[in-house]
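Please discuss these two lines.
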Amino acid sequence: MTAVELNANGDTRGRILDAAEALFVEHGFEATSMRTITATAGVNLAAVNYHFGSKEALIQEVFRRRLTWLNRERLRALDAFESEAQGAALKPSQIVEAFFGTALRLAADVQHGGHRFMRLLGRTYTDPARFVRTFLAEEYADVVDRFSVALFRALPDVPREEILWRFHFMLGAMAYALAGTDALQIMDGKVDEDDPQAVAPRLMSFLLGGLRAPLPEMVNKNAVPAKARAPRSTRRKAV
């Protein structure tokens, strides 16, 4: 099914976004030309320029139209857990559920483009388009700050730097799992990594295990734990 078929009855702007999203997943940002996007969407270049102005602006809007919802839902889930906790620190599992569980539910949406979008978002880790990474870091700054603070409170005996490293690894694991690569096929058994229903519970268990793992020996035993440090802003790209 083509991107045009997915939004055949939609407006011109929506068809362009659907076409661009599908092509970026398949070919990447650099290899996808504006001519290919317009041909797939069934529009002319003037329509793309009218709605977006440039390829860079189009790429940003492809992300923004779903990231706005994803960020809002993540914060809504975190707010709900914090309200129930009544000032107490959250459980690590609740934080993982609010941030990563919300994204996995979007990835399970195969009818409205959520699965395709999360594959695209995952592949930004390996795509050379630096401006995309910068854009995503800015879009996620406030969300990552909120979740970082929650993690610091949930894991008071873990050094702050170690928590950030683990969050970084968790983001990478999720991006890899959702990117739709064929890397797992080098293993002896067949792994259906494109099935969101199969990926989600395994990935959530893996992420929580990594977050709770014992500290490595290389971590300075005298490192100041997160509870003793004043939170500061973090600017890391998120998925």
